[in-house]
Amino acid sequence: MESVKRILKSNSHINDIIVNNKISSYDINDNKAKNKYALDRTKFTPNTPESSLAEKIAAYFEDLSNFAFYFRVVKNLGEARTYSFWQSVKEEIEGKMGGRYEIRCPKKYFAWRYKRKIY
C-alpha cells in the first residue's frame, strides 16, 4: 500500500493540468455576470414612474449596472416614499461633504440605509 504523500506527489501534475485547462477555457471578457442586473435598453425601457425614478437614482449614483436593486427599492417602498428617502440621503451626503465624517461611497451608503430600514 502506497503512502498518501507519494500518491499526492504523483498526481499533482495531473491536477495542475486540469486546473490550467479550466482557467484557459474561462473567458475573461465574459460580462454576462456583471451586466445581469444592469439597465439594458434593448430589453427594457423605463416607461412607468417607478422605473423612471429607479433610473434617476441609479444615474445619480452612477450605478446603472445595479439598476435592478434600485428598481426593487422603488417597488418595495413605493414611489413617494423612495423619493423622500433618496432626497434625505442626498442632503446628508451633501451636508457631510468636506467634513470630518465624509461619506466616501454614496451608493453603498444608500444601500446600507435601505438594508437597515433607515428610511
Distance between the amino and carboxyl termini: 66 Å
Helix content: 55-70%
User: Major β-sheet, in short?
Assistant: none
Relative strand content? under 5%
What class do helices, strands and sheet pairing give? mainly alpha
Question: How many structural units, i.e. domains?
Answer: 1
Oligomerization state: single chain
The run of helices and strands is: HHHHH
| Strands, count | 0
Rounded mean pLDDT is 82
Name its key features.
119 residues; 0% strand
Account of the protein in words:
By secondary structure, this protein is an all-alpha fold. It has one domain. Helices cover 61% and strands 0% of the residues. The chain has 5 helices and no strands. α3 packs across α4 (79-96). The protein is extended and about 70 Å long. It starts with a helix and ends with a helix. Residues 22-33 have low confidence and may be disordered.
